[in-house]
Amino acid sequence: MATTMTPAEAWRKLREGNERFVSGTSDHPNQDASRRNSLVGQQNPFAIIFGCADSRLAAEIIFDLGLGDAFVVRTAGQVIDDAVLGSLEYGVDQLKVPLIIILGHDSCGAVIAAKNTVDTGEMPKGFLRDLVERITPSVLAARRQGFEEINDMVVEHVKQTAERLLDSSRAISAAVAEGRTAVLGVAYRLAEGRAELVSGDGAL
């Protein structure tokens, strides 16, 4: 059974949860045995959160969510690949989730690594190279706009990731065009715990 929430209602619920987290008044909803049992046969999340894998960026905690509330996909630097695209399309097409959040954060190590590669010309080894190659266009786009601070580059990378998602996935771009879902870029501040909207595609 698909959620009856609109993209705007889903975003409001996430904002309210984040406000509780910031103020230290989290409800910790939907985390008891009855909720667990109710989800055995189905799931009905109201948000997809595609975020950085950083250990300080636990999506369910910072938005004060519980079991079954969010379909969460995470990679270092919230880098898109085919598995991520398939996961997000599953959330939109099969689970009918009305909202996708692209979640980045300040002082992101993956963005720092990409900036260092741009500055020095030295590529990291192993599969970290793949991450850096996918983040580098965002670093260069930020620089073209005159930004040199890492946190400005993080915001640009969130925006670029949202654009890349819509450019790469016909299913998701169609869902946005039809008003079935929205894609929002959000930047998280580690010190204060606040998640701020930085970009948006779709009706809210």
Automatic annotation (TrEMBL):
CDD domains: beta_CA_cladeC. Its cofactor is Zn(2+). It holds the Pfam family Pro_CA. It catalyses: hydrogencarbonate + H(+) = CO2 + H2O. It comes from the Bacteria. Keywords: Lyase, Metal-binding, Zinc. Belongs to the beta-class carbonic anhydrase family. SMART domains: Pro_CA (SM00947). This is carbonic anhydrase. One of its GO terms (biological process) is carbon utilization. Binds 1 zinc ion per subunit. It comes from Arthrobacter mobilis. Catalyzes the reversible hydration of carbon dioxide to form bicarbonate. It is an enzyme of class 4 (lyase). GO terms for molecular function: carbonate dehydratase activity; zinc ion binding. The keyword Lyase applies. PROSITE patterns: PROK_CO2_ANHYDRASE_1. Its EC number is 4.2.1.1. Zn(2+) binds at residues 52, 54, 105, 108.
